[in-house]
Design brief:
Strand order of the largest sheet: 17-16-14-12-11-10-25-26
Oligomer: single chain
Largest sheet: 8 strands, mixed
Helix content: 40-55%
CATH architecture of the largest domain: 4-Layer Sandwich
Radius of gyration: 29 Å
Strand content: 15-25%
Number of domains: 5
CATH superfamily of the largest domain: Ribonuclease Z/Hydroxyacylglutathione hydrolase-like
CATH topology of the largest domain: Metallo-beta-lactamase, Chain A
Shape: globular
Amino acid sequence: MSGKFIYMALGVLLGVLCALVNPFLFLFLFFLYVLVLVKIKMFKPVYIFILFLLSFVFFLKGEWAEADNQSKLSSSKTIFYIEYISDPMIDGNLLKVQGKDSQSNEKVLLRYQIKSEEEKNALQNQSFYGSLCKVTGELERPSIAKNPNGFDYRKYLASKGVFWIVKLSQYPLENCKPLKSTLTISIKQLRFIGIRYLDNHFPPEIAGLAAALIFGDSHILEPEVLSDYQRTGIVHLLAISGLHVSLFIGMIFLIGIRCGLSRQIMSNFLLVLLPIYVILTGSSPSVIRSALMISLILFAHKWKHQLKLITLDAISLAFIMYLFIAPLVIFDIGFQLSFLVSIAIILAAPKILQGYKGNLAKMAATSVTAQLSAMPLLLYHYFQISLIGIMANLLYIPLFSFVYLPVVYVLFFIQLIFGATPRLLINIIQKIIELSNQLMDLLANLPFTNFTPGRPHILILSFYIILISIIFFIWERRSYPNKKIHLFWLGVSLLVIQPAWNWLNPYGEVTMIDVGQGDSILIHLPHGKGNYLIDTGGSLNFLEEDWKIKSKPFEVGRDVVVPFLKGKGITQIDKLILTHGDMDHIGGAASILSSLKVKQILMPSVTEPSETEQFIAMEAQRQGIPVIKVSSGNQWHQGENDFYVLSPEKNFTGERNRGSIAFVATIGGVSWFFGGDLDQEGEEKIIKQHSHLKIDVLKAGHHGSKTSSSESFINQIQPKVSLISVGEHNRFGHPHQEVLQRLAAVNTKIYRTDQQGAITYIFYRGKGTFSTYLP
């Protein structure tokens, strides 16, 4: 059955997907797959029977995993007996750690607000393993995605068997008793001690890199450096993968042989070492895959006369075993990428890679293979791919393989054995890392290095998969007419499919993005004729002591608005309309300016702009973006869509909310009123000047505060629909009941982001419908 396991692996994958995703779709695909195997691959009946049996077993396994993946904890529970099962993560004054409730045997995520700098230092150097602790706290559900393309933390944790967050009210290690030590606990403690040792004895640049390459932990890397790795498409080099595992195992094997041990003894030793190494490096999917593959190959070597196992069979069996143990891992992006890219490279090796001479050419072909195979997954999960990734890999794979990886091990063991590392050696390595990071920062910030077409529709995603399969089919053919020309145009097609659809798409939209207690509204006109962003949301920042500041605090513009826009393939904003200077409206503007191309910024014509407005104006000037101060009477038109500014008057002097940009627009066949945080006095002024003003859709002022949306204003404009952008459980009590009653009195349909998430109006040729992201 050599070489057939890949077909069995695909069959069990369809069985699991049938149970966990869509039974009808994947059952249809399974029978289609069987038909292909029978008619084209000429599979024998016995293999088809085995395929059916395996697929059915994995279908049942998937059904059982989904049924079992439910919480058993009562939401009212406040006392827990916790065994900690992960390293604590401390960022600023927040501690997060996973634990297992001993009474229900259910995993939970615990959060603790650290009280002092001394307490933080103690927690950073304290192992949480090997203790059973009685803690008190409140259970809360993880947050859900409230915008299209948003990160769903609840789903992410549920796929790992975590359904609750425990907000601790006391020190997490206050009431603990020791547990009987196990091998797993001892290895996890060793890992924790090793990471802390690196952090305490080496400069940050070396410590962060060494922790990633030795222990699979990238949390102590600088956030900006980690971001550069991601943007250049080489972040996979920081994750311990098949390359790292193979080099490590090869090094151990070679040392054993040089010491006079037989190959049989070393093979047995490695079979024992591999599970320990998996735990020591954090048990990531890529490490588990590599360890399973190497273990299977070692077993096959032990019984080489009875068992023949090619590399493709090894990865297929590893996939089947991994999926059987943990069916829900199918939703893990690391699992998906690790297996998909590895299988693509293994399949490409005999016919594609062997056609290239020289290590550089082979490495380039391998990098292209990896990028092509990963492309559908990267676009689906991250909405973009790095166009400079192939070149960056050619530069950094040798650097990691032959410099960083051996050097960090050498430095680590020198420090362990002698208690100190020569300063000259530290300085040399530190300088190499600094220069490497500077080059990476330069590559990451080159223009046009990221391809961001947005998240493809399932049909377009399927077309990508078909197109990439055709590329590989042509590429591996030795004698194919016009091979290079066809591959070139197929490659170009990959880069134009989604952008072409974005441009051809005849539908427009107006979306009130859920940014919590703030405002941000996207106006996207059909055929890409205009993208206008009204405000950017923003978080209020308070001055805190240094030890409380998080390395990368949550920022609405970067973490909510930019992913929302990139998920739609929007990388250019034609008009960034900043209604007024409050942080909850424009605090995210800096992230918009650094992540997207902005052609023009509109600000209110006021005599005293806020500090944030002044900063944005200075940044715009640095980037060469025109800033236009608008006031009543300004207008613009785009096709059938008209925009008229009603407020403020030129060089407005007065209260900031009253100086908000307020404008009416005709979009998608309906009239809209956007008024920022315009107060009642400002509203009264508008209806006096425009006594016949009628509006179909009202963006309620100031998040539904009773200082806006006056009764006379509502009664005159008679909105059919009102949109309220407001944060869940906000401390201001927005929206106020009085405002809701005023709107209800004129029979307006009310949509609220706190209850329904993002609110979208999709229109086509003057007609449209409203929908909410949450039901």
